[in-house]
Amino acid sequence: MSGFPQNFLWGGATAANQFEGAFLEDGKGWSTADTARFIKENGISMTELLKPTTRADIEFAMNDKEGVYPKRHGIDFYHRYKEDIALFAEMGFKTFRLSISWPRIFPNGDELEPNEAGLAFYDAVFDECLKYNIEPLVTISHYEFPLGLAFKQNGWESRETIEAFERYARVLFNRYKDKVKYWLTFNEINIIGMTGYLSGGILADGEKNMLQAQYQAAHHQFIASALAVKACHEIIPDAQIGCMLARMEAYPETCNPLDVMESVNSDHYNLFYSDVQIRGYYPSYMNKFFRDHNITIKKDAADEQILREGTVDFMSFSYYMSSIASHKKEGDTTGGNLLGSKKNPYLEASDWGWQIDPVGLRVTLHKLYDRYQVPLFIVENGLGAKDVVESDGSIHDSYRIDYLRSHIEQMEQAIDEGVDLMGYTPWGCIDLVSASTSEMSKRYGFIYVDLDDEGKGTLDRSRKDSFYWYKKVIETNGADLS
């Protein structure tokens, strides 16, 4: 008998900027994702996400006629959403995680009136989901910050962006209050501490302390999230709204107390964001970090009360891999979700060097539930791999099935051990453009999309072996993982 509750939300996850396409169509404005160029050097796809981004960089991308910008076309979900949602329904999805593109609703980010064509598109998407009894799980902001606000006020570094976000969120709640009951405020909110431009629209021009700018932006996002939570509870009383964190589980390299302390510090750096959004106040351990890095957070008098009153209903997170915390910096390293790590000799790794650690997911579930005692939701997890299409069109992705099976087994054990887990939406349930490297060849989906890194292909959809496997998992509520 399966250990998953009967109301467990099985599904899949996507993001507007990685699969919608329809660049600037129907009134959509520019976003930070639209300037992400695909770069390949020596056969390796490179990322520019962690580099400071200037106005000149953005203007170059906006005027570039030769570069490849895959997130502008995605996989054309904008025009193929009915076909894709029908495939999700065939798998038996209970929920579908997607995001709304802020500049599709407010092209420059701060208009007083929304773009009706953008609103109508998501109406149609939600109606199609509900036709199949699929609950939409909607992320309000997922790496598609409006460039208009980046140019006008340096994005989230400006407190004025809070007002624009709250207006945007209230428009969504009022428009979709009868269609969407599960919401997330910011995707992987902690990424603002690593890259100011991607999720925060912060340009490096004139910034003497980028870390100061990023943490000030994080504060503004905390306030905006709290105001959105309060608005959601007022407008849609039967809805639930959560936070979303990129979870980075880091084991001590050895039992040396200095390595253990590094692991503690890693948790502080990672969980600071969820501490604020779930507990409603700044943790004291950040005082030294701010002091050491010459960071002073500017706050308004009402901010503490806003944070207390705007705590989220549940915690969602992404989990792909674990890493190593060590007080010694030398040693072999491997790839990771924006941040690399020392190699763990007990783990295998993906084609991209991400260390595969299903037990680490169970460790994370227990750590988070012990810390917060709120329901948890795994909204991203999966294996990026190079799929091969056979001569008959089939795709035998047993490696993906093995990865997902091993993680679901650990989820079931965590539930049996007392963790309150709401649901599971594996990342990239349909192949889409990579968030970090903008490549298409790094595939996560149950559904194959005929498109290459250069944007060439038919865009035809086809079912992988994992499609049929996941369908059986959902049908049996996790009881049959064979």
Q: Biggest sheet: strands, sense, closure? A: 8 strands, parallel, barrel
| Helix percentage | 25-40%
- The CATH level-2 architecture is identified as Alpha-Beta Barrel
| Spatial order of strands in the largest sheet | 1-4-5-6-7-9-15-16
- Form type: globular
Task: Name the beta content range.
Answer: 5-15%
Number of domains: 1
Number of strands: 18
The end-to-end span amounts to 14 Å
Low-confidence stretches: none
What is Rg? Answer: 21 Å
Number of helices: 15
Q: CATH homologous superfamily?
A: Glycosidases
Structural class: alpha/beta
The overall average pLDDT, rounded, is 95
CATH class membership: Alpha Beta
| CATH topology call | TIM Barrel
Report on the architecture of this protein.
- There is one protein chain.
- With 482 residues, this protein is of the alpha/beta class.
- The chain has one domain (9-475): TIM Barrel (Alpha-Beta Barrel), CATH 3.20.20.
- It is 38% helix and 15% strand.
- It has 15 helices and 18 strands.
- It has helices at residues 16-19, 55-63, 77-91, 102-105, 116-131, 147-153, 160-176, 196-200, 210-235, 257-279, 286-292, 303-309, 358-372, 398-416, 465-475, and strands at 9-13, 39-41, 44-46, 95-99, 135-141, 182-186, 240-246, 249-252, 314-318, 322-325, 333-334, 341-342, 348-349, 355-356, 376-380, 421-424, 447-449, 461-463.
- The longest helix has 26 residues, at 210-235.
- The protein is globular.
- 48% of the residues are buried.
